[in-house]
Design a protein that fits this description.
The complex is a heterodimer of chains A (517) and B (170). With 517 residues, chain A is an alpha+beta fold. In chain A, 41% of the residues lie in helices and 17% in strands. Chain A has 3 domains: 2-111, 2-Layer Sandwich (Beta Polymerase, domain 2), CATH 3.30.460.80; 161-199 and 482-517, no CATH class; 243-440, Orthogonal Bundle (Cytochrome-c3 Hydrogenase, chain B), CATH 1.10.645. The two termini of chain A are 36 Å apart. Chain B has a 5-stranded parallel beta sheet with strand order 2-1-3-4-5, sandwiched between helices. Chain B is globular. With 170 residues, chain B is α/β, with parallel strands linked by helices. Chain B is built from 6 helices and 5 strands. Classes of the chains: A alpha+beta (517), B alpha/beta (170). At the A-B interface, helix 5, helix 9 and helix 10 of A face helix 1, strand 1, helix 3 and helix 4 of B.
Chain lengths: 517, 170
Amino acid sequence: MRELHEEMRQRFTPLPGAVAAWHGRVSREEWRAWLVRLHGHQARLIALWGTDRRAREHVFEVHAALLLDGALLWFSLAVDPDHPEYPGLSDLYPAGDRMQRALADMLGVSAVDAEDTRPWLRHGAWPAAWFPLRADADVAAGFAAVADDYPFVTVTGDGVHEIPVGPVHAGTIEPGHFRFSVLGERILRLEERLGYKHKAIEKLMEGRSLVEGVALAGRISGDSTVAYAWAYAQATESATGTAVPERALWLRGLLLERERIANHLGDLGALGNDAGFAFALAQFSALKEIWLRRQAQIFGHRYLMDRIVPGGVTSDIDGAAARAMIEDGRRLEQDVRQLRAICDDHAGVQDRFVGTGIVAPDLARRLGLCGMAARASGQTVDLRRALPIVPYDRLDVAVATQEAGDVAARVSVRFEEILESLRLCARVLESLPAGPVRVEPASRIVEPRTAGCVEGWRGEVLIAIESSEDGRIERLHAHDPSWQNWPLLEHAVIGNIVPDFPLINKSFNLSYSGHDL
Amino acid sequence: MIKTLRRIVVGGIRTEAPPEPAEELRTMRQRLSEQVLEHFAGALAIRHVDAGSCNGCELEINATHNPFYNLEGLGITFVASPRHADMLLVTGPVSRHMEMALRRTYEATPDPKLVVAIGDCGCTGGVFGESYASRGRVANVIPVDVAVPGCPPTPFAIMQGILTAIAREK
């Protein structure tokens, strides 16, 4: 491992900024060699994307971001525009399969050895030979819808039938298509089809100034607006060499932990409801509402949208606000402990939770499950510890893990994370450093390629930016942790009964918008 | 069980007064007759369609069911099929990939029907606007009776939009 680190230091360039990150351009041979080596050292694939650099250097570029033991590694491979293909990585990293398909849809650059060459983000809205992320593609282009017949994998056999679900789902949730192959009540296979919410976010980012892009970044996945805005701010602050005041960074930590708590409260209520325990929904949704109202009162937005901006945060808090939040936290902790005891004692709820929707630790590791769901399947990944930034480097975050990998384990991790986040919020509020909360971001670009990465409530949110000399976004790639976790949902439901699907799905609660982009 | 009951009793009833209808949210004249409106008051079935939102509006639609707003207490329920619905509550800019699904959902909803567009994106296209992937505001795809701005609109504003759509026009 030490050898590898030494070699990385020689081969790659450290990127400035809050996150320990390295960048390097690699040859075609090196690309595979590094992937194989890093995979051998248990590095995790975060994201794969591409850039049209034909105007500058007559090449396309394919980028991979991996997380290795305390550092983010970003390497870029130049691809000949006349032969737009590159050696794929889905044999090493199965989660890369859909990313490769998305890259082919968006930029027209394909993994040469890809097994699955079906489109992923492109349905019928634009033609197969038109690629949105190429420089010559007009964001305002409009095409007549083309036929969209997606070849699902069919399961055959005596008594096997299919249940198609979506894109419009039965509840108040996001659109996507699920194709179940079932035998009686048992699920033999689930195949997901996503991409319905694709709304050109990455293309819309092109040409925006680094300052103005944050509003759109905060709306990639509304329930993770803090995580996205923070990762975006990190990337822009690194690009401009902007030093963010310490107090602003601590307040960002407070906002991120509050977002984690709000989402876990909402999901715990919904999970109780899906198990037929409406009491839990009423209780948790009331606690969430109280939490959101405090956010509206102190920060000016129920979900904290637009509070994190390049250079800091938009508003400061005073002593009274801090005391109110500390008091809220104490009360919420008592409530959550009481409700946890009630749910743990409820035989009907436990019967639905325990043993349902299992992702075994070994599968989670091999397929690259991330975030809260991974921690419920025995993986200790948490960027708040693995890639610590201010204030997490001084908070000694306790990572909650479970081994069982079932709905009950994900529920348990959520309970633990609420309690830990409450502790972190209290610590932040008690030891908030004095000073300003916002500086004017510098306008000169000191590093054209930069990345930001934070542990949102679902998992790792990554923003990678390539900036032009005049402070504009040439290319922005946003990565949602749902990319890693959607494929695992297909595994988690195998052998379960169809009526348990909503429960299993909710226990992950993955983002469609953040994935479809 | 005793712990559960105690929490219910101690928590008490939290539901707050519902909003009054707001005429400024209307985007077209009230299409429904007095008689129909009388039936909708107290028994309205809504089908939610996310046509491409960031999922922020979904958080707030879900919040209308929490004890503070208690939308169901007004006789307004969310149903699983457009066939059972009187109203579509549509969020998001309409992504081109959802355009067909939204049209079909609209067609599957029996007449008389109402459409309420939720959020800045539903009202105008919002930060996403129109592009190769987005058709922009909901009214570009299906007729909209009431539009509720906000990013996302509060649960109170969403309820106000719903109640305006089934109120007699002033």
